[in-house]
Amino acid sequence: MLSSAGEAVTGATAPRGDYLAVLDATAPAGQFALVRRWMDEEPLPFFKTLRERRPVLVTPVCTLVAGFDAVVDLLRQPRVFTTALYRPKMGDGIFLMCHDDDALHTREKSLMQAVLNRDDLPAVRAMVGRLANEALDAAVDGRIDAIARYTRYVPARLVQEYFGLRGRDASDLMEWSYWNQVDTFHNQPFDLLSEERRRHIEQRHDETGKELGRFVEELVALRLAEVALETAASPLLLLRRGLAALGRALTGAPAPVARDDIVTRLLRCHFPETVDFDIKRLGVNVGGLLIGAIETTSPAVAAVIQLLLERPELREQALACARLPDPAAFDSLVWEALRFVPISPYLFRKAAVAATIAQGTPHATVVPAGTLVLALTQSAMFDPAAFERPEDFIRTRNWYHTFHFGFGPHECLGRYIGMVLIPEMVRQIFLRPGLAAEGPMDFGDGPFPQHWPVRWEGRAG
């Protein structure tokens, strides 16, 4: 039972069989299909076997790395273990994510992180709470499709309001984000898909990517004109502003609130040519704000809600923590839950040169250039080398050892936004009395949840 002090709740199950004996007895051509099934269906016991007996597993398709230290070492070497597999999915290098430790990556990530000011976080959390309650209040008779109308919808609304991607319906933003994420992260050589399915995903990504590109071009042009008018310093405009300020002083009327969102902030900045961040690069990064927000947040929120509802002792903890004035305890509960149900159990990389994984250990393995590598981040989060009693649910853990937002140079650009967005969305729905699932979560034919019927008994207290 998990107490308010954070005692343990046993989580992982014992291995169902001798994975390695079965694997070694299987012909090479069929080995990775087995590995992939175990990763998808019973990751914790499979990963435990790897950590204890074969922490670097070589298969004909890719090499899996299971231990915490080796995963960290791999992810902090971006020019050795690269994001080259991203490039053909991202316009052959158009976005910073597929650049490894170069000037563009450093420059643009730094600029975007400066504009995504961490001082905004209290306001962002309040905005998330408002948007979440608007979505929940719109439910009929306390019933909602928790995916389409909540876990995907609320991040899309945040993209509109805080990031500033206004002018298109939230459903368009969700569609564009979905196909980009599916193609980039779930249509890779180690994803066992039919050729027909691969072509369909690539076609939809291409179609929706063009729609997103046109939208961003129009958005930036329109908002650039607005910013230009706003900042014009003509005598007539200055006079009009002065008269308006005088009128407000005489009547006590509040000053108008200037538009402040991330797109507007970027357009208000003036970068010299030597910074190499022109209007085209600005537009690319605006599109990236959308792509990184929805189909990362939605499965995380959905998985945590489901886990907390399915385990009575955790459900009680969630209900108690959700009502506390300080959300820190609830946030910790969410981060610990995500160890057990991460949005992906791995990050993938491609070796640019021959390299040694787990150097200096009995399991040191040389992989040749071109090797595809899966850094098993979920396995690393259950490694006793970094986590005390890793198979127990302990909400007071040090979350710095987790990989929820990646690790190293490619750690998520919007990490701190996600750190208020995800737990606040979970918290708000747990404030609805009698919260319960009415059916199973439906993934359709893709990797992300699509529909999930959920109900509650009334408005938040």
SSE blueprint:
Layout (H helix, E strand, L loop, with lengths): L18 H6 L3 H14 L1 H11 L2 E3 L4 E3 L2 H8 L5 E2 L20 H13 L5 H17 L5 E3 L1 H5 L1 H11 L6 H17 L8 H37 L3 H17 L10 H7 L10 H13 L2 H17 L1 H11 L5 H13 L6 E5 L3 E3 L7 E3 L4 E4 L1 H4 L34 H16 L5 E2 L15 E3 L6
Parallel strand pairs: 2-8
Antiparallel strand pairs: 1-2, 3-5, 4-10, 5-8, 6-7, 9-10
Helix pairs in contact: 2-3, 6-8, 6-18, 8-9, 9-10, 10-12, 10-13, 14-15, 14-18, 16-18
How would you describe this protein?
This protein has a five-stranded mixed sheet, with helices on one face. It has a three-stranded antiparallel sheet with strand order 4-10-9. The longest helix has 37 residues, at 195-231. A hairpin with a 7-residue loop joins β6 and β7. The chain has one domain: Cytochrome p450. By secondary structure, the protein is an alpha+beta fold. Mean pLDDT is 92; it is low at 1-15. The two termini are 26 Å apart. It contains 18 helices and ten strands. Helix content is 51%, strand content 7%.
